[in-house]
Amino acid sequence: xxxxxxxxxxxxxxxxxxxxxxxxNEFILPRLESVAGVLLDPLADRLGTGSLVENALRSIExxxxxFLLAAAVAIPLGIAMARFxxxxxxxxxxxxxxxxxxxxxxxxxxxxxxKIGLTSILFIIFLGAFFPILLNTIDGVRGVKRTxxxxxxxxxxxxxxxxxxxxxxxxxxxxxxGLRVGxxxxxxxxxxxxxxxxxxxxxxxxxxxxxxxxxxxxxxxGMILIGLIGLMIDTLFRKIEAKRFAxxxxxx
Amino acid sequence: xxxxxxxAAVTCCVVLLALAxxxxxxxxxxxxxxxxxxxxxFGTMPTLMATKQIDGxxxxxxxxxxAPMAGFGKVLSYTGDLPPDAVxxxxxxxxxxxxxxxxxxxxxxxxxxxxxxxxxxxxxxEHQEESGAIVADWLAGKGNFTYGNISVSxxxxxxxxxxxxxxxxxxxxxxxxxxxxxxxxxxxxxxLKGPLSNSTDDASKALIFxxxxxxxxxxxxxxxxxxxxxxxxxxxxxxxxxxxxxxxxFVAVKKWQYFNDTYGIALKPRDPTQSKPDLVxxxxxxxxxxxxxxxxxxxxxxxxxxxxxDTIQFVLVGNPPAMASIDKGNPVKILMALNTEGSxxxxxxxxxxxxxxxxxxxxxxRSDAGKPLRIASPGKGxxxxxxxxxTLKSSGVTVKEVQV
Amino acid sequence: xxxxxxxxxxxxxxxxQGMTSLRIDRLTKEFVTEQGEIVSALSDxxxxxxxxxxxxxxxxSGCGKTTLLRIVAGLDQPTSGAVLIDGxxxxxxxxxxxxxxxxxxxxxxxxxxxxxxFGLEMQGAAVARRQEVARKYLALVGLSDFASHYxxxxxxxxxxxxxxARALAIEPAVLLMDEPFGALDAQTRNVMQMELLGIWEKxxxxxxxxxxxVDEAVFLADRIVVLTKRPGKIREIVPVKKCPxxxxxxxxxxxxxxxxxxxxxxEGSAD
Lengths: 252, 404, 271
Prior knowledge:
Helix content of chain C: 25-40%
Radius of gyration of chain B: 23 Å
Distance between the termini of chain B: 41 Å
Number of helices of chain B: 17
CATH topology of the largest domain in chain C: Rossmann fold
CATH class of the largest domain in chain C: Alpha Beta
Oligomer: heterotrimer
Distance between the termini of chain C: 37 Å
Number of domains of chain B: 2
Number of strands of chain C: 10
Order of helices and strands of chain C: EEEHEEEHHHHEHEHEEH
Shape of chain C: globular
C-alpha cells in the first residue's frame, strides 16, 4: 500500500520532466529542475518577501490560530446544538445558508469590518475551519449511544460528568475527523486570506506576489510547498486518530 | 412518456447551446479595424505573450523593460510617444492624493508628507541609478526575475526602466490640463457617472485638486523651516502601487537617514532590514510625529477603496482611478504629481510592427483576417487602459473588451 | 440525559442493615404516539420484591417489561403510581440500583479496568481504592487477566461479565438486568446463566431480571412475574422455589413449571 501511494507522485514527476522537455516552453510548463531548484533552496530570499521557510512558518502560524479559534467556538456550540433541540432549530437554517459560501467571498466584508491586519485574515481562516468542525461535533454528539449515557446515569454520573466522561470521549473520533477536515480547508484558505492587502508575509502572499511579477517557477514551488505542508498535517491528524481512536473502527 | 419528455428537453438545450455557440463564434462583420483589450494583471502577461494568447500589452515600468530583456517581447512605444503627440507628451501619470478630513484636521502633517515626497522626488532625479537599485530592492529584494528560461536581474531592469519615467511634482497648468484630458477620456468611455461626468473645467479642478499642501510644502522647503506637526495618535496609512512610479516613496524610506540629517524630515522604517518596510515613523525636526503603515496594492481601484474606508489616508496612485473614486464620492483630493509618462506598449518579438503606423497596419491586416489583435492592459480604468483605448480610438480603431 | 443525585433522599438507612425492600406500587405508564393516540404500556402494576430475591419478569414482546425495568431504574417516569426503595420513591437513577443493558454498554475507549472503575470515578473515589474494588469484582466475574484489555478484544459473553462487574463495583442493593444474555449465542448464554447464579450466591444482591425466554426464567428465578400483552398487567406470579440450584432442566418439577409458564404466555399472546 505504501509503495503504491509513493509510486503515483513519482510517475507524475517523471511525466512532468518529460513533458517540460518535449514542450520546451517554460511559459507553458516550467522545467522540473527550475522548480526543484527553488524548493531545494528554501532559505533564500524570494523577491524581497523572505524565504520559503519563513513564509511557510508565518502561514502555519496564522492557520493554526484561526483553526484553534474555530475549534474553540465550534465544538462547544456543536455540543450545545446537539443537546438543546431549540438551539439547533434556531441556528440550523442560518448555518445551512452560510456554509456553502466560499470563505474567499467574505474578503471584502472582512476587510471592511476588521481593517487591515491579522484579524481580517484570521476571520477568513476561521470561516474555513468552522463549519466542518461544527457539523461533525453535532453529528458526533448525536451519535453517542443512548445506552452509554444511561449507563453513566445509573452509575451515578451527574450531567457535567456525563458531558466530559461519556459524550466527549464518545463523540471524539467524529469530532477529530471534523478537526482534520476543518484544518485542511483552513489551510486552503491561507492563499485567499493572504491576498488581503496589508499582508506582507506568508505562502499565499508569496504566491500572489510572484504572480504579480509573472514568476511561474516560484508560483509552482509555492503551490507544491502548500500541498506538502497540507499533506504532512493531515497525516499527523490521521496518525493520532489511528492511535487514540482505533476503537471506533474496531467496534462491532 | 417520461423519457420522451426528457429527450425533448435535452434536445432543446443542445439546440440552444449550439445556436449560442454559433452566435459567439461569428462576430458581426466590422468595417474597419478592431483591436481587443484583455484586462489582466501584469503577472499573466508574459505567459500570455509566450503562448500567443495576446499580441502585446501595455503596462507601467518596469514591466515594459523586462520584455526585451527577457526576450518575450519588444517595446513598441513608450506612452509619451504615442500619437497624437501633442496630447500624450509629458502625460500625467501617478499622483499623490490624501483624504480631506486628514487635511482639515492635521494640515501640518499633510504638508510634511508632501514635503518629504518632494524632497525624495528631487533626489530620484539627481540619483537615477541609485534610485533604480532601491526600487529593485523594494519590489524584488534585488532578486532575479525569471521569464521562461531567461533570468533578468531586477536591479538591471529597474535601472534601465527608471530613465523612461519622468519624476516631477509641480501641479502646473499644463499638468492640470493633462489630467483633465484623462477625465475627458474617462467621460468618453463612460467611466464617470457622478459630478465629474459633466462638470466644467473649473468645477472639475475644484473637485479633484487641492494644491494647498504642495504650496505650503514648497514654502517650507524654500524657507528651510519645517513646521513640526502635532503628534498624531492614530496610525495612518499610505497606499502605493508595486511600480517604479512610486520610487519617491521607496527612496524616502530607504534613504531616511539622509533626509533626516539633511532636511530634518524622514520616513523612518521600524524594521530597516525589511526589503519593503510596512511600518514607518514620520520624523520632523527629530520628533516622531506619526506612525504610518505602508500598504501595497495591485491596482489603483482597490487602493482607492481602502482610502474611502479610511483604512489609509494617503494614496500614490494613477490619476484615473483617483478621479473615478472622487466621482463616486470618495472624500480625497489630488495634491500633486508623482511622475509623468513611464509606461509603454510591448508587442511580441516577432510582430511586424516597430512603430505606431506599422502597428496600425498590422492591426488592420489581422482584423481583416478575422483574427483581431489582442492587447492586454492592467486594470480597467487605469491610465494604461485609458491611454491605450483613447489612442486606438483616435487612430480610428474600434476597441472591444475581450471576454475570457 | 439524566443525571444522578448522589445526596439527599437516597442516603443509606435501611440498606445499612443489609436489608433492602423494593416495592412497585400501582404503576401505570402511558405513551402518546406521533399520531396522538394514547398507548398504555403498563397498567396498575404492583409487586413487592424481597431482599436478595431473584425475580424474573417474563412476557411476550411489547408487553412493557423493559419499560417497567427502566422506570424502576429511574430512567423513565411513570404516568401514575410509584416505585419505592427502602420506602423512598425513585424518580431518577439512584446508587442503590444498577442496571445492566443488553448490549453496547461498555465504553470502548476505556480499558476493561477503567470501565469497571467508572461508577467509583463518578463518586469521586481515590484512584487506589477504585482500582482495588474494580479488581475484586473483575476477579469475581473471572476476568482478572483482562484488566488492561479493551472491549473490542472481548467476546460478547466477556463483555457482559465486565458490565456485571462494573455494576457490582458501586455496590448497589439491586441489580436490574434487561435481557442481558439476549445477544449471546446459546452456549455462552448457558454459561453466563450459571456464572450469574454463582455471583448472586456470593453477593446476595436483589435481582430483577427481564427476559422473554421461558427456559431462562425458570432456570434462574425465585419467582417469575408473567406479564400480559400490552397493556402489561401481572398475569400470574409463579414461584420456582421448589427446585434448588443448580437446576436440572430435565427434572420433573422444572418441566412442569416450564409448561405452566409457557401456557400462560401463549394464552396471553392468543388474546
